[in-house]
Amino acid sequence: MTTAVADRTLTAADRCDRCGAQAYVRVVLETSGGELLFCGHHARAVEATLRPKTSEWHDETSRLHEKEPVPVD
Fold it and tell me: pLDDT value at position 8?
């Protein structure tokens, strides 16, 4: 897997593989190079088991707490 793909920002089109909610965590599996996407809830639920088996754990859950900019008139 190339760094360019692994580092791309997740968008609203990226959906959790468990529940279909917006994904905020991208996981790249070490052995196969396969990619999994998770919402914050499911990422936390599988992290202890899955993280040792990954080559990349890209977490954007901090975006959940960002405030949107106020438009200037």
Answer: 81
